[in-house]
Amino acid sequence: MKPLLVVFVFLFLWDPVLAGINSLSSEMHKKCYKKGICRLERYKSEMLVAYCMFQLECCVKGNPAP
Questions:
Q1: Per-domain residue ranges of the chain
Q2: Burial of 50 (0-12, 13-18, 19+ CB in 10 A)
Q3: Could you give the maximum distance between any two Cα atoms of the chain, in Å?
Q4: Over the chain, what is the mean pLDDT?
Q5: Do 27 and 56 touch, CB atoms closer than 8 A?
Q6: What is the tally of helices (H) and strands (E) in the chain?
Q7: Distance in angstroms (rounded) separating the CA atoms of residues 27 and 47
Q8: Which of 11, 18, 59, 66 has the fewest CB atoms within 10 Å around its CB?
Q9: Sorted alphabetically, which keywords does the UniProt record give (predicted)?
């Protein structure tokens, strides 16, 4: 029972540690050009306005004027 508890605690605490190490997580959902949001892939209702780091797309909702 004790080893199982240790495994659960390890898995629970490991995720925040990896989030701090992973540089992609800090770039995801970051504000970018023209009030856009950086994501891996834009939705059909969004328009691509720029590129963020790590090949993320800067997406803006709707179809903004150029």
A1: 1-61
A2: middle
A3: 62
A4: 76
A5: yes
A6: 2, 4
A7: 19
A8: 66
A9: Signal
